[in-house]
Amino acid sequence: MNAAPVTEAELHAYVDGALPSARAGKVAEYLGQNADAALRVSAYRVQNSQLHTAYDDLLVEALPQRLRVGGAVWRRSWYPYAAAALLMLASGTAGWHLHDRVTGSRAQTTQIARVAAMAHAVYSPEVRHPVEVGADQEEHLVRWLSKRLGASLKIPHLAPQGYALVGGRLLPGERGPAAQFMYQDAKGQRLTLYVRVSNDVRAPTAFRFAQENGVGVFYWLDGRLGYALSGETDRNELLRVADAVYQQLNP
Question: What CATH number was assigned to the domain covering residues 44-249?
Answer without folding.
Answer: 3.30.200.100
